[in-house]
Write a structure and sequence with these properties.
The protein has 93 residues and is α+β, with helices and mostly antiparallel strands. The chain is built from three helices and three strands. It folds into two domains: 37 residues, no CATH class; 55 residues, no CATH class. The chain starts with a strand and ends with a helix.
């Protein structure tokens, strides 16, 4: 399936999306052509690539308590909330 639109995120990232039935899904084309990524279940490598950070940084966060599913997959929204909470704790906000 070909990607048919682009989604721009508030913090300056963007990714291609494709229509699959009634669902618009993100496409992580830098990983493999036509491979889709579910933001609710990302592998460490895919999350690192999506966020443009080293995989080791994501692994450090997981070791420090970042939420993961039993299979090691990471929910992007839960990860972002965890990072935000850590920033609040560090900055005292």
């Amino acid at each position: 399936m070909a990607a048919d639109s682009r989604c721009d995120l508030a913090w300056g990232m963007s990714f291609m999306t494709e229509q699959v039935g009634d669902i618009q899904r993100p496409v992580v084309s830098s990983v493999e052509p036509h491979r889709t990524a579910d933001p609710r279940a990302l592998a460490v490598a895919d999350l690192a690539r999506l966020l443009s950070v080293a995989e080791e940084k994501i692994r450090e966060h997981v070791a420090a308590g970042a939420p993961t599913a039993a299979d090691g997959m990471i929910n992007l929204v839960h990860y972002a909330a965890w990072l935000n909470q850590r920033l609040k704790e560090r900055d005292g906000d």
